[in-house]
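Running co-folding for zinc ion.
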Amino acid sequence: MRTLLYNGRILDPSQDLDLVGSVVIDDDQLDYVGPNLPEVDADEVYDCTGLWITPGLVDPHVHLREPGQEYKETIVTGTQAAAAGGYTTVCCMPNTNPPLDNPALVDFILDRAASPEAGGVFVAPVGALTRGMSEEQLTDLAALKKAGIVAASDEGRPIQSAAVMTRAMEFCVQLNLPVMAHCQDASLAAGGSMNDGAMSAMLGLKGIPRSAEEIVVMRNCILSLHTGCQVHVMRVSTWGAVELVRQAKYLGAPVTCDVAPHHFALTEEMVGDFDTNFKSDPPLRTQLDVDLILQALNDGTIDCISSDHSPHASHEVHAPFAEAPMGHAGLESTVGATLTYLYHTKVLTPLQTIEKLSTAPARILRLEAGTLRPGETPVAQVTILDPDLEWTFDVGRTFSKGKNSPFQGMAFKGKAVATFCGGEIYRDARFDDGRIRQVG
Ligand SMILES: [Zn+2]
């Protein structure tokens, strides 16, 4: 089986490639990436005129909820959502029930992800830093790494003790394992449900101050500097957190960070109607935070974009604001939000956009992904994006079980229209309109 993706704009930040040309996938391998060829034998031809052909997208932060919370999401539905969202690799977070703190659970996740009914994307598990995520005893990180984790994290239950985090980082340095840090001081954030400020006071909701995030970002940056541990600060939300990461990088600490779409596109103003779809962790902040996050995306302080895909069941979301769970299903809206709010607004160039959605997260987590160089990924990983497609995001049409989204009903410009991970694993119905033809 030979598949030809013809006459698309090939964007590959890993080789600084931006040209109109073709990609040939032979069985499950990339065979050719370059200018259009006069004649190619292919079984299937995709006319990619006006579309972008990019390395398969990589999401460094998703919650697949399995094991333990299959009513919110499963590895099968989550990976199907990933494929539909343009992703060929997703990193799943360890705060499942039980938490991902032993090698048998890593095996379980990798087996489920490889099952024929799953979405066909790579799942890269992120292990827990402490047993039971209870902050008492470190996990056997060496055994977890051998089983296949790509990083270790305290996501969902941020480690409060600087001493415990120091020991964890010292182990991770030895194992050459990145730490993905959830930066929040529990004593400051306790009981809060939105950004702390005039808006929370007006609505009568307890706030989460920006200091809750920034204190722990600073602590983790300092610990990274002193231990040499690679630390990835997950989904920054305040301008102060961004500034701390900037300073840490300046000092030479091996620190990186990402941002999620709701934190570069939305503000606390959206909480005004007590719509629980706007309840985030960390909370939606202010326009000043958004403005400085956009600047930091542009200047490279923010390395990449994650969905922080956090699906919840409808009965949980339909609750009083203070009681509702935090977070949003994001795998199928992140590309649309990124192209709408970052590419079409000229915050990011096309190459920068793909860098943040694919090449950078792959580099940070040392994944064999994020590139269109033949032979550098285990199988061909390619995403086709229509940068100009105007569509309305509708949770009723998503694969994820989670229908909790702050982008519900919003107009997007730009969409993932086909995803290949080996073979084709997702194709948007609209892509069929005369753009694809069978040959022979
Ligand atoms: Zn998360």
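Result summary
The radius of gyration is 21 Å.
The chain has 13 helices and 19 strands.
Job closed.
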